[in-house]
């Protein structure tokens, strides 16, 4: 790293209350790009910021300190792209007016989207239950106004992602996005119902002629395929009939399935798939099932190098700003009625 760049970098780190030695260690571990050198055109490596569950209490237009620290960290780390697994705003309450919903998205823009966009870091969203739940009653959306506002907000920002879309008819709810080396399928798992028509759409997305054999293939949706945290091992908190969907994703050669909603970082293997349950970036820490571990607010950095084909994941505790060790996580999460998930390595190869 050039000296002036390094000085600026260390100043930024100090601003986020991260010690130089911890971050240096983190950068060594992840093989990160020095600030300013991550190139959107660089197809030999990719660095992604993975975040989820930022929202505060219903109607909130501001964000807690862990979200602010996380945004600052992302701006320092300069990932090529941020993927957000949902719950960016605090809806899912029918009493909220349209102007309140708009104000929440304006708050998200001000605190999260605009600073990242200004730093040249686009965000790929997945819609969460608090952003625009897909729950229906008698064939109609229960939270239709939330979905409309999410659609309006992301429609305004679609231009920032436009050139990379493969399919965006139902953006921001379902879409396919590609850049060299990366193929992303975003699914609408804003409720437990990922219906048969969406499953067919996913199947055809994964067999798109635009997908290249070397692409890292990520599928992201808000609800996970199985249960990770206490209070979430019940109907409505995970995708219904997950085994059928898991089979489809497995056949489709998906490298990683990313989810939020359970507010607990847990990298796992389940149903023949590699899963990543993201911790909440905001409030609402939850205990991982069958353990004494309460998940702190966190974000994950994922780095991929084409040369080695190695993927490294580093998750940062947004309270201490320290990298988290997976050794403290239980070896498996197993609860009646849900597929078992086994803790996996944070370094892996495709295939
Ligand atoms: Fe959620």
Concise synopsis of the structure shown:
With 351 residues, the chain is α/β, with parallel strands linked by helices. 28% of the residues lie in helices and 22% in strands.
Mean pLDDT equals 88
Share of residues in helices: 25-40%
What is the CA-CA span between the terminal residues?
33 Å
CATH topology: Purple Acid Phosphatase, chain A, domain 2
Oligomer: single chain
Main sheet characteristics: 9 strands, mixed
Give, in order, the helices and strands. Answer: HHEHEHEHEEHEEEHEHEEEEEEEE
Strand share of the residues? 15-25%
Number of domains: 1
- Helix count, DSSP H or I runs of 4 or more residues: 8
Rough outline: globular
Strands of the biggest beta sheet: in what spatial order?
A: 6-7-8-9-10-12-11-16-15
Q: Compute the number of strand runs.
A: 17
**What is the CATH class name?**
Alpha Beta
CATH superfamily: Metallo-dependent phosphatases
Ligand set: fe (ii) ion
Give the radius of gyration: 19 Å
The CATH level-2 architecture is identified as 4-Layer Sandwich
Query: pLDDT under 50 segments (min length 5)?
Result: 1-42
The helix-and-strand class reads: alpha/beta
